[in-house]
Input
Amino acid sequence: MRICTPHCGIAPETTSGGETYERELLVRLGRAGVRCEIILARGKPHPEGVPNWTVHRFAIGRGLRWYVAPLVVPPAIKRVHVAAGFDLLRVHSLRYIGPGTLWARRRYRLDVPVVAHHHHLDPSPLNGVIEKRVIDASDRVVVGSEFASRQLREELGARTDHVSVVYYGVDAKFAPRPRRADLVARYGLDGRPVVLFFGGLKPRKNLFLLLEAWAQVLQRQPRSRLVVAGGGPLLDELRRRAERTGLEASVTFTGYVPEAEKADHFNLADAFFFPSAMEGFGLTVAEAMSSGLPVVASDRGSIPELVADGETGFVCDPGEPGRFVERLLSLLGDGVLREKLARAGRERVERLFRWERCVEETRRVYERAVEEWRRRSPRQ
Output
């Protein structure tokens, strides 16, 4: 099978969970024998040496804007179709890529199905104008959670009879191992209980609740430390908040963590704290479970599909910060409980959230889309 995927980005280093998913999925699809015709803006980085990848370039020298994409995506798709041909058009972003891809198929009469991938909906008055139309016009749609499918149906009013839920994957490198001594020294964690947050520092992650709850944990566990790993637009404001509330000595902000160090950062912790208000999947939650960490997370979005409450961790209502505090304190004070939840978390990841499963199920969706398209529109 050969797929064409116009793309905003698949950089080796990124702060975006969605971009990480795209990069890892496409790399593994290539390794599994799927020919990937990838279109990127000039200068956009990508992994090198991936089998079955061909990288083409848009006629622009920077990243796409959603309102520019309909002008540059269709002619780029046409060039790839003439040069290489393909069996399927892939949409990785409903707003940025979807309209241009559908327009290209119609304008150039491309005899191929369109499969869209979707993570979650952010609030926007344009959702009903763009996202809904792309969902309704796509031949198949892949989402990362039952929550994402419900959101399309209930909030967008889109059809979902063609939607497949395929959970994201987690790399086996996220596994329990001893704390890396240089990181322990860098962050001053020696001999201390450690709670970790890992993710992009953006508003929907509920990070001020993170600090609010941590202040209460510290009253009962004064030797513990909170490591906030990741970069993003709220980093400076969070640092100022920690200073104003007297938390700066107990909270470490790492800034951006390179891909090569991500797994080692998970292994610094005794528990993972993730109060995010919205996740289409929650990749770092699954990575934490794979790393052997019990999780305390919000009950919003897809997270209850990842974390089995009381079995692999705890999910809590963000409207009740005290519940997060209680759960974190119970984990920090009970090593047997931590080990029990951690073991169950790793077993859950092995069963549901490995890349091998994700790639195989995604490939089946693509094959089904092509088969159905050809039955409806046999090639001459």
Notes: The chain has two domains: 2-169+355-376, 181-352. The mean pLDDT is 95. DSSP finds 14 helices and 13 strands in the chain. Residues 355-376 form the longest helix (22 residues).
